[in-house]
Design brief:
12% helix, 1 helix, mainly beta, single chain, 8-stranded antiparallel barrel, AOC barrel-like, globular
Length: 181
């Protein structure tokens, strides 16, 4: 067999091996955290951790709009806890925004950071992605970080763990990091 005739076989073998290696890849770090969002509703300013900062023409800044909240933009500075208890000690803050981006389906787009202030972790993890809220679990991208999470990449599986009307919700966030420095 000539060396030239071996090239296609070698390329096929490398592609085959490369594909199986990525399927079996394991996270270098995993975290499960909860964040608690309390939306300002006109009467809870002392406890609110989120506020509507943009609303469609038919909406206002204290009540989420109809039509699946389409057009509302909310900023937040929510506590992050290790368990699902709002009264637990915060290990950091979830800071960012979500916007409701579709009239026909209850869905949002998220852009936020987990900013840590505990003795266990320093720095931040940054997230971005679509959040089809009616799905039990949703994956969003981990797109970077700072400090202990410098330039990290991965996936966060989020799940609505609890909600109380349109004022409070809690998300369980299972973070799987695949690039750790």
């Amino acid at each position: 067999m000539s060396p030239k005739s071996l090239i296609p076989s070698m390329v096929f073998l490398l592609v085959l091996l490369g594909g199986s290696a990525t399927r079996s890849r394991r996270p270098c770090k995993e975290l499960v955290l909860y964040f608690h969002d309390i939306l300002f509703n006109g009467g809870n300013s002392k406890n609110a951790t989120a506020a509507i900062v943009g609303a469609p023409a038919w909406g206002n800044n204290t009540i989420l709009a109809g039509n699946n909240h389409f057009g509302d933009v909310v900023v937040f500075d929510d506590p992050i806890t290790l368990d699902n208890n709002l009264q637990s000690a915060a290990v950091g803050r979830a800071q960012g925004f979500y916007l409701y981006d579709k009239k026909e389906i209850f869905t949002a787009w998220l852009g936020f950071s987990f900013v840590f202030n505990s003795s266990e972790h320093r720095g931040s993890i940054n997230f971005a992605g679509a959040d089809p809220l009616m799905n039990k679990t949703r994956d969003i991208s981990v797109i970077g970080g700072t400090g202990d999470f410098f330039m990290t990449r991965g996936v966060a599986t989020i799940m609505t763990d609890a909600f109380e009307g349109e004022v409070y919700f809690r998300l369980r966030v299972h973070i799987k990091l695949y690039e750790c420095w």
